[in-house]
Amino acid sequence: SEKSLAVMDLLISADERVKAGDFIFSEDKTSFTAAHSLLRLILSRQVNIPPLSLKFVTNRYGKPELCISSLSDEFQLNAKPLVNFNLSHIKNMVAVAISNNPCGVDLCSLTDEIPTNSLTSGEIRSIKSIDKKKQSMHFAAIWSIKEAYLKATGKGLNVQPENIEVKINDENIEVYNFGIPETRFLYGLWNFDSVTLGVAVYENTEIKIIKFDDFDELMSSF
Predict the structure, then answer these.
(1) Which of 174, 136, 160 is nearest to 128 (CA)?
(2) Alpha carbon distances (Å) from 8 to 37, 46, 119
(3) pTM to 2 decimal places
(4) Which residues contact 140 (CB under 8 A, 6 or more apart)?
(5) Strand, coil or helix: 141
(6) Main-chain phi, psi angles of 8, to 5 degrees
(7) How close are the terminal C-alpha atoms of the chain, in Å?
(8) Interacting residues of 221 by C-beta distance below 8 A, sequence separation 6+
(9) At how many degrees (to 10) do helices 2-11 and 26-47 cross?
(10) Within its chain, how far is the Cα of 106 from the centroid?
């Protein structure tokens, strides 16, 4: 609704507002604004300071992190675990991951044409080996886990994605980094209509999904 859009716009910083304005399509601007306002709302509850008082820095790979000096004295003095976060947004859907451990999240839309340039030969074989009608969903599962893992490591696409291999058999998910099994992370997959959500969290942290159908429903929970 227009009211929700106005509220979301008030929750993001001036810099984020400028970035939102760079999008050509209004739905992309809305998605970006929703993602960053949602992130600020959730983080503000975690660290007990107003959403607009949150400040962010980036690591050497460009991944955003909370600026510790912007957090409340109480939060710093109590030596609470560092709040890790990650977000992903596509048209009409936003995902935010919050954890005391490194985490990554990715949304991938189903597509009829499967790009193979960033897949391993094993991933391509696994996709082609199944029924053609299921290939798009299998690709989305592989790609969302691959992206979520890379984002959780803090390196993102600074690592060539074809060096990471994802194997999915039934509910079992395995990730290989340059051929070495990556067992430090817990992985999860969820399907929402034509979108697949992939999550990676360090050290077997429990993954809990909370779904809101719109911004008004989200706001009513705060």
Answers:
(1) 136
(2) 6, 19, 36
(3) 0.89
(4) 108, 109, 110, 111, 195, 196
(5) helix
(6) -60, -40
(7) 18
(8) 212
(9) 60
(10) 4
